[in-house]
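Help! Submission page says 'invalid entity' but I think these are all valid:
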Amino acid sequence: AQTVTQSQPEMSVQEAETVTLSCTYDTSESDYYLFWYKQPPSRQMILVIRQEAYKQQNATENRFSVNFQKAAKSFSLKISDSQLGDAAMYFCASMNSNSGYALNFGKGTSLLVTP
Amino acid sequence: ETGVTQTPRHLVMGMTNKKSLKCEQHLGHNAMYWYKQSAKKPLELMFVYSLEERVENNSVPSRFSPECPNSSHLFLHLHTLQPEDSALYLCASSQETDWTEAFFGQGTRLTVV
């Protein structure tokens, strides 16, 4: 079974600053993927970034990047130059082929962005 | 605009009612999912359909009954629900050629009274 843990229920960042959201996971699989999803008040889950476990290079999407530490089973999300529109719930998730390609989510971190 | 549309957006039902949630995807995907999102809990996978066949049922009570008549539509039929079933129900779809990118609908906020 896979478990995903987000230890920060809430985080706050000032506009234009950088914030890091933490995530750890536990899996016995060797082939898996990790994701960060954003859920704004509109409720729609939006994929922010994804990382293949076999790739050592950290994924980057514009202002979003991850710090993937495979041995430590850690997958943190860094948001640079934070914007007001980044305020949302952020969910870390994992997936492997044995789970029917379904996502296994953490409890989420609520990110507040202050002007 | 989302490629995955869920209706209704909000639903209030009594414990003796029968209702259905609908999900439609316009992305040409061949896998669809139902997730339940309750307050203070991680999203829970309920059902997975791949090529219109159910491939996973995560020990969901029988008062929830999924239906996938074709690759574009997914339903969740509800009957004799309990107040603890109140939650946000999210539908998602993905393509097996790129199953790592799931697209979600905006969910149905269900309240059982």
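Support: the input was valid. A stray whitespace character was the problem, and the output above is from the cleaned input. Chain B has no helices and eleven strands.
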